Amino acid sequence: MILSPTGADAMLAGNFATSLNSGYIRLYAGAVPTTTAAAAGTLLVGDGRFGATAFAAPSAGTNARQIVANAMTSDPAADAGGTPTYARLFQSDGTTVIAQCTVTVTGGGGEMQIDSVPIVQNAPINFTSLTISMSTL
């Protein structure tokens, strides 16, 4: 399937973006589960939170449409230390997984990249930006 920019906008700005309103972002260590229903590994971060309106309106990217997260709430103290390998994005109920992605240090090729690893237990985790892209042609 090849999506048009309008089709990608409908998917991104529709249920995907709105399902993360006031939702959570959590970083985990360990083997990346093969499904979002599989048990999670070691939680490295308490909870980063998306805003009441999680994402801004879709915009143009390179051969893609994208949504950028609005301001997110950081976690003042990591629950555990270690190197995250994946993240899960949850609805506001904190239990319904919307997406899972790989995590690496910046430049490492992960779907989500962070600037500093390992995470130190009790250190703050700052969630400063998140862009989700969908290819279009």
How would you describe this structure to a colleague?
This protein has 137 residues and is mainly beta. It has 1 helix and 9 strands. It has one helix at 5-19; strands at residues 24-29, 42-43, 48-49, 59-61, 64-68, 86-90, 97-105, 112-114, 131-135. Strands 1, 2, 3, 6, 7 and 8 form a 6-stranded mixed sheet that branches. Strand 6 (86-90) and strand 7 form a beta hairpin. The radius of gyration is 15 Å and the shape is globular. The N and C termini lie close together (10 Å). The mean pLDDT is 90.
Strand content: 25-35%
Low-pLDDT segments, ≥5 res: none
Question: What is the total tally of β strands?
Answer: 9
Biggest pleated sheet: 6 strands, mixed
Rg from alpha-carbon coordinates:
15 Å
Q: Please tally the helical runs, counting DSSP H or I stretches of 4 or more residues.
A: 1
What's the shape?
globular
Helix content: 10-25%
The overall average pLDDT, rounded, is 90
Helix/strand/pairing category:
mainly beta
Listing every helix as H and every strand as E from the N terminus to the C terminus, the arrangement reads HEEEEEEEEE
Quaternary class? single chain
Distance between the ends:
10 Å
